[in-house]
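Exercise 7.
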Amino acid sequence: MARNARGQVSEARSRLLATATQLFYAEGLHAVGIDRIVAEAKVTRATLYRHFPSKEDLVVAYLRGVHDMERDGVGEALASGLPPVEVLRAVAKSIAQGIQSPHFRGCAFLNAAAEYPDPRHPVHAAVLAHREWFLGTITDLFEQAGETPPDPAGRLFVMLRDGAMASGCLADPVEVCDTFLRGVDGILRSTRSK
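Solution. The predicted structure, written as tokens, is:
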């Protein structure tokens, strides 16, 4: 990561990443070209390539930024001191709020996987790394809550989330989120009653 003389991340890098993040999420990874990112970030091509040797590197950095943002949000819920079941509900509510936000365009990771389906590609690998972290975090919460078995409950939560993220672009987001939250409550009720 390029830093200036004071050890701060360079302003040009931050601007490039912010511009790419906005454009990639709104319009798609393949639809947005390097020339447009350079023009909107108001940097030169040389500056872009100094920070990101290829568009692929920029896409991976974008996904890492989205991952960090989501990890921080889940981290806040984990640090809340709430019991694990309530942390799961808080994570679900946060997902629902995102789906209902004005510029929602689906899951950045599902969108990226659709554009980069080769599992050996670095972009797809970044998607898989994020999903592994998220599934692991959710499954750990089910385990901490004493739910048995936690693995199927975690996978079901993630699958419901994926469906809500896709449906939130295609149907009434309020209804989608209501269905998603009821589904999460159903998982919690069914696993706690066993």
